[in-house]
Amino acid sequence: MSTSCVNYWAVVVGAVVYFILGALWYSKGLFGKSWMQNIGKTEDQLKAAFSPWKLVWTFIGSFLAAYGLARVMSWIPEASVSTGIMVGILAGVCFVFAPMSINDTMESRPCKLTSVNILYHMVGFVLMGIIIGAWR
Predict the structure, then answer these.
(1) Distance CA 121, CA 113 (A)
(2) Residue 120 needs a FRET pair 20 to 30 A away by CA distance; which of 34, 49, 62, 99 works?
């Protein structure tokens, strides 16, 4: 497997978009209030527990997810935006929805929390797939 088929600019842009999506998704304007309520934390508690390293790790995770999608798409001849959407949905369902729903069910987490978290990642994977597919 050669790494020459991976467009690293697409990976970086995809990771940045995924990272920014998280900031928007968990903001008060979208799902932040519901998320905080369902994790049982207040805004003050989250601010007190904040560390810049959490953002660094989040970006590293975003980069790894984007790289993984780009690597899978490099194995598909003539990958495109529509391929990126399909791979993003497949990855979201198989590698996000399935394991997170299993864990959250066994941990008795609120369904709203599971939905907010899973949908964030699924939308993020589709957006990254679109970006990577457009750049192929």
Answers:
(1) 13
(2) 49
Question: Do residues 132 and 85 lie in contact, with contact meaning Cβ atoms separated by under 8 Å?
Answer: no
Q: Which amino acid is at 119?
A: L
pLDDT at residue 3 in the model: 52
Q: How many Å apart are CA 64 and CA 61, to the nearest integer? A: 5
Q: Which long-range contacts (CB under 8 A, 24 or more apart) does 31-37 make?
A: 31/116, 31/120, 34/112, 34/113, 34/116, 35/113, 35/116, 35/117
- pTM of the model as a whole: 0.93
Mean pLDDT of 109-136: 96
- Listed residue (121, 132, 135) closest to 18, CA to CA: 121
